[in-house]
Amino acid sequence: MSSPPVPARSFRPLALARAIGAALLMLAVLPLHAAAPAQNWYSKTDSTATSSVVSSPAIGPDGVVYVGVKVTTTAGNGRVIAFNPDGTVKWTCEAPTDWVESTPAVAADGTVYVGSWDGNLYAINGETGAVKWQFATGAYIYSSPAIGPDGTVYVGSGDLTLHAVSPLGVERWQRPAGDWVDSSPAVGVDGSVYYGSWDNYIYGLNADGTEKWRLLTGAAVVSSPAIAPDGTVYCGSSDGSLYAIRPGGALKWSYPTGDAIESSPVLGADGTVYVGSNDGYFYALNPGGTLKWRTNIGRPVATTATVRADGSILFAADDNKLHALGADGTEQWSFAFGSTADSADCSPAVAPDGTIYAGSVDGFFYALRGGVAPLASYWPMFRHDARRTGLVAPLVITGQPQGHTLAAGATAVLAVSATGTGLTYQWNKDGVPVAGATSARLVLTGVQGTAGYTVTLGNQEGASVTSSVATLVALPATDPGHLINLSIRGTAGTGNKVLIMGFVTGGAGAAGSTPLLIRGVGPSIMGAPFNVTDALADPVIEIVPADSTASRTGNDDWGGTDVLKQAALTTGAFALASDTSKDAALLGDFPGGVYSVIVSGKNGTTGAVLAEIYDARPAGQPAATLPRLINISARGYVGASDTLIAGFVISGQTAKTVLIRAVGPDPAFAAAVANGNLSDPMLYIYQSVAGVSSVILTNDNWGGDPQLTAVGTAVGAAPLSVPASKDAVVLATLDPGVYTALAAGMNGAAGITLVEIYDVP
Q: How many angstroms separate the CA atoms of 671 and 320, rounded?
């Protein structure tokens, strides 16, 4: 195949670069997690009668949240409410004539399935709230429906039966039990269905409804099963024990607690089994059935937990509080829904953006700013996933590797993401396996020519899937991709809390000096369109070369000079408010080397500031001829509600591979800031397209990844000495455009962090 031509013009996004300051300031107000989550919004589920929320919320792919409501009147009725992410009501379905304690399940086509105490299973149009059909069982429905891989809906009923209903509302089969079926079924990869009954049994059925096995416990089973990657079925019983059952039905182990287990188990990334008990404890069990830890909550825990990406665990208890435990079982925070005379029977849901949704017996439905996404493990929450399908999802690629056009000899990074745990990877080049390429990320150095790359993934169930083709094209380029701008939105404090930017200029074959525009903007972001009320009134910038023989330079007030105005036009920097504003700016020629930019307030003042570095070389001058920005960084303070935001621009004809780090816990950095470091940074990478920013990459803990270590060494980054540290690192190939790296503190952590962006040649 013929190679595409090299673009005639370099990508130099002046309009987007001009808007980057506004984008950074808007990102600064995004809701992020705190030590105790703040309410995003809450809503009363009935304004005229006593209502309660026992149903657990389900979250659709579009972020709409569905929840059932129990309305207490003399007649008794219920409803299903759909909330938009901003808390407005999308629709209310009042078709149920009795309580809705069942948790909705959202199908792939948007249909919402839910049961009611009126005995009906309802199929509701997720867009309009209109009932598509209803299927009548013989008694009340407390059980929550599950959705099989073929769309079959499974639900238990008080008529002592598990029902299998087609997506059109026609019963496919039914399986009788010896008593009520309040347990919510779980569906395995092979279509097997697992559930419990008040007849004391846990059942395993084939997809056609025939019985595979049953296991007798010592009391009623209202807990709902969870399924592990190896097929182990976990389920609690009112006899107080958690049962682990082999796929064939044999008991693997049981663990006794001090009272009934009505909570349903969930699984952590390492296979830890989490479950609450009515004895007032929340338990973490090792996969082998031994106690890892337990935490005394003091009140029964009948709800089911959600495990988040940082390992924290959320659940509600009979004290009407939402509790958050760390991975070691220590309580991180609790949120009181209302009077402790009420209880919380609703299992929380966590949206991809970290928002926590939960309801209470007080009748209110809450959205809290959690800031931490749910864990992408095998069964991390009630009903397996946020849609509450109760289905072990098949192996599905959720993020395909992306192709790029690169400068010949450059480094490229390909990555894939998929559902499931225990995944295997094999990368292929033009259909041929690449030796040793067996991780989710493929790093290629010295790329030449054109090639198509795929990756084949497998899971523990024997399933496999191959990605789409990502084509890499490496061509000679007169203006290869490079960094041209760093804009930092942070807080300029005093002492070691001043805002510090760093930059390194250089590059193979480069010589001479590069013109750079450097600014510290405070007064000009006070008014529209930025409206930053706490902006630094009088910023001062000082440029400190690492070469002690070189002279320092700096600026207090920019003075409105024509040279600086022209430099702003050339680089795409936004115009400062007036010639007499006390913003700081300078234009200078910088030879290859290492520099720091210290931004502080005159006379010890503090406030929010926008610190910027722009490559000010004339348009059309190839990047390779002069030293270019090969490393840009920012050091600043991150608080419970403050973030450090670094915007950067990639210009040129080709994509550029970058290493981005948020350093805090590393011992060397902690010592450098006198232990005032951020203990657990979270890194978010945004891309801005047509003025709209969206998250494209995230990382919490870098995990000692050897690929990241090797690349860090190659670009001269200070080593992260502790593999288990909670520093955050992202390695990616990015096309020319405008990007933002945002560092926040996990779980309300505060301290000084360093955000670094490295050019990977």
A: 42
Task: Give Cα separations from 37 to 31, 32, 180, 440, 649 (angstroms).
Answer: 10, 9, 38, 33, 33
Residue 489 and residue 22: Cα distance in Å, rounded? 10
Rounded CA separation 426/440 (Å)? 9
For residues 628 and 734, the model is more confident at: 734
Residue 482 to residues 15, 24, 404, 503, 738: CA-CA distances in angstroms? 18, 20, 15, 14, 12
Q: Where are the beta strands (DSSP E) in 582-727?
A: 584-591, 593-601, 607-615, 628-638, 644-651, 656-663, 681-689, 692-699
The rounded distance, in Å, linking the Cα atoms of 299 and 282 is: 10
Query: What are the residues facing 276 on neighbouring strands?
Result: 282
Q: Is 714 helix (H, G, I), strand (E, B) or coil?
A: helix
CB 519 within 8 A of CB 584: yes
pLDDT at 293 over 70: yes
CA separation for the pair 250, 470 (Å, rounded): 45
> CB atoms < 10 A from the CB of 339, how many?
11
Helix (H, G, I), strand (E, B) or coil at 261: coil
If we measure between CA atoms, which residue out of 23, 32, 30, 31 comes closest to residue 525?
23
Question: What's the CA gap between 720 and 416, in Å, rounded?
Answer: 25
Confidence of residue 6 (pLDDT cuts 50, 70, 90): very low
What's the average model confidence in pLDDT over 610-619?
Answer: 89
In percent, the amount of the chain with pLDDT more than 90 equals: 70
CA distances from 630 to 261, 285, 636, 707, 728 (A): 57, 48, 20, 20, 20
Whole-number average pLDDT of the chain: 89
Q: What local confidence, expressed as pLDDT, does residue 383 receive? A: 92
CA distance readout (Å), 188 to 41, 121, 233 = 36, 22, 9
Give 322-365 pLDDT, tens digit per residue: 999 999 999 999 999 876 556 788 999 999 889 999 988 888 89
Residue 430 has pLDDT above 70, yes or no: yes
CA–CA gap between residue 53 and residue 101 (Å, rounded): 7
Q: In what order do the strands lie in the sheet with 226-227?
A: 226-227, 233-236, 241-245, 251-256
Residue with more model confidence, 691 or 287: 287
Strand partners, 659: 731, 758
Q: What is the CA radius of gyration of the chain?
A: 29
DSSP string, 352-377: TT--EEEE-TTSEEEEE----PBP-S
- Distance (Å, rounded) from C-alpha 73 to C-alpha 94? 14
Q: In the numeric block, which tokens belong to residue 33?
A: 């997690």
CA dihedral for 125, 128, 129, 130, sign (positive or negative): negative
pLDDT single digits (tens) 98-153? 999 999 999 989 999 999 999 999 999 999 999 999 999 999 999 999 999 899 99
CATH number of 49-161: 3.40.50.11540, 3.30.470.30, 3.10.450.50, 2.40.128.630? 2.40.128.630
The domain spans of the chain are 49-161, 508-626
Query: Is beta strand 153-157 parallel, antiparallel or unpaired with respect to 146-147?
Result: antiparallel
Picking from 109, 101, 141, the residue whose alpha carbon sits closest to that of residue 125 is 109
